[in-house]
């Protein structure tokens, strides 16, 4: 049982899920049976996963993979915490890093925690299962195992940043990364993505990859951005596959994308262009970029929809198609010449009409007088004899 607890997470999960060992009699399994089960588990995974497990320095992997020592010597100078493009973490490796650890597997560095578990502060998560040695910015304490679980939750989609009552500092990720190399590198990678303004983010044009491409580095040359994960070249202006010698053409892609959003009842954020899916609830959407808008029409939300949409609807009734919205979705070509979202407030506003001048009191019109004396109440004298 002790040997099984020291196995890599993925290896132990494969052993249980494929029935190589019986979970009910696991505590009675011998070391030889555990080693054989681990060998069977490693035999059914692809080479990429074997390499990922080897990088986590699983003791069983080192025993059954040939020439592993040579690979370790070749990589002695590689720092797993180096956030350089060559060390970019792909989606597959990200999923492995964020995989839930087994609840009964304790890290070796936590062994000392059990000696003083009845003294001092308790972990705010597991309430004293182990003596916590990690004080967080908010004042709470966490044991190392719960800290790693907290960090993994914050690095998943929609969970940024890793936090307790307040966001965690980089030093806490470094503390957890000692037990699982690569976690800090993933943290720095996701932090750069989230700190980049939504309209400036560029993702790999290859649909099977779609990795975030940092805006600075040796992989950027003019408008050409090479994906650090798969090597695909993406145009920074139109976000499509690089097209040397041809102008950017995104109109067709915009039309197809708007059709897809209408078909699947999706709405783009008017500020950052992030596509939002509403699983249920009211129409008030707060995008991760901070902008609040109405899911039905895309209008701004200031306590309510500024365009009069109701708070709820049934089966998407009343939803405004993306093409008919005032804030149109379109991809960026030149940020200075073509704004990503054309908003009414972005357009030049007409000058207001001049205010009417106050009307002065005009004298009432008078009938035309034949004789000037009549203006003073005089009459022209009547000639004699008339």
Question: Can you tell me about this structure?
Answer:
With 386 residues, the chain is of the alpha+beta class. It has four domains: 1-77, no CATH class; 80-195, no CATH class; 196-235, no CATH class; 265-345, no CATH class. Helix content is 26%, strand content 8%. It has eleven helices and 13 strands. The protein has helices at residues 2-5, 9-17, 31-43, 47-55, 59-64, 68-74, 91-97, 144-155, 170-177, 183-195, 251-263, and strands at 134-135, 141-142, 202-203, 212-213, 220-221, 224-226, 233-235, 266-268, 275-277, 284-286, 292-294, 328-329, 341-342. A hairpin with a 6-residue loop joins strand 6 (224-226) and strand 7.
Q: What distinguishing features does this structure have?
A:
386 residues; three-stranded antiparallel sheet; 13 strands; 11 helices; alpha+beta; 4 domains; globular; repeat; two-stranded antiparallel sheet; E3_UB_ligase_RBR; TRIAD_supradom
- Number of structural domains: 4
Kindly state the mean pLDDT as a whole number? 72
Cα-atom radius of gyration? 35 Å
* Percent in strands: 5-15%
Uncertain residue ranges: 57-86, 101-115, 331-344, 372-378
Count of runs of 4 or more consecutive helical residues: 11
Distance between the termini: 146 Å
- Summarize the biggest pleated sheet: 3 strands, antiparallel
What is the molecular shape?
Answer: globular
Order of helices and strands: HHHHHHHEEHHHEEEEEHEEEEEE
Strand order of the largest sheet: 5-6-7
Structure summary, number of beta strands: 13
The secondary-structure class comes to alpha+beta
Helix share, percent? 25-40%
């Amino acid at each position: 049982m002790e040997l099984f607890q020291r196995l890599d997470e993925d290896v132990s999960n494969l052993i249980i899920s494929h029935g190589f060992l019986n979970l009910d009699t696991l505590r009675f399994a011998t070391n030889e049976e555990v080693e054989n089960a681990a060998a069977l588990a490693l035999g059914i995974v692809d080479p990429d996963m074997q390499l990922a497990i080897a990088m986590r320095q699983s003791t069983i992997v080192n025993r059954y993979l040939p020439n592993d020592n040579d690979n370790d010597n070749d990589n002695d100078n590689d720092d797993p915490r180096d956030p350089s493009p060559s060390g970019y973490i792909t989606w597959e490796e990200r999923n492995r890093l964020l995989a839930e650890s087994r609840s009964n597997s304790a890290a070796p560095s936590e062994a000392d925690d059990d000696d003083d578990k009845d003294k001092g502060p308790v972990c705010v998560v597991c309430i004293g299962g182990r003596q916590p040695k990690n004080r967080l910015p908010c004042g709470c304490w966490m044991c190392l195992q719960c800290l790693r679980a907290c960090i993994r939750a914050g690095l998943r989609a929609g969970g940024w940043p890793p936090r307790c009552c307040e966001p965690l500092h980089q030093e806490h990720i470094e503390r957890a990364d000692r037990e699982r190399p690569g976690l800090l590198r993933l943290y720095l990678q996701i932090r750069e993505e989230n700190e980049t303004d939504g309209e400036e983010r560029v993702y790999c044009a290859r649909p099977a990859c779609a990795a975030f491409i940092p805006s600075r580095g040796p992989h950027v040359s003019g408008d050409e951005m090479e994906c650090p994960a798969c090597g695909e070249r993406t145009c920074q202006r139109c976000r499509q596959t690089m097209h040397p010698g041809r102008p950017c053409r995104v109109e067709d892609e915009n039309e197809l994308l708007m059709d897809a959003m209408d078909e699947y009842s999706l709405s783009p954020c008017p500020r950052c262009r992030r596509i939002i899916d509403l699983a249920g609830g009211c129409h008030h959407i707060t995008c991760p970029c901070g902008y609040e808008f109405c899911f039905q029409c895309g209008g701004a939300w200031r306590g309510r929809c500024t365009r009069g949409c109701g708070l709820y609807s049934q089966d998407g009734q009343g939803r405004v198609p993306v093409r008919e919205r005032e804030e149109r979705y379109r991809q960026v070509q030149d940020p200075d010449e073509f704004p990503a979202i054309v908003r009414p407030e972005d357009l030049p506003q007409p000058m207001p009409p001049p205010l009417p001048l106050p009307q002065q009191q005009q004298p009432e019109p008078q009938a035309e007088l034949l004789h000037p004396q009549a203006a003073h109440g005089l009459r022209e004298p009547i000639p004699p004899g008339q």
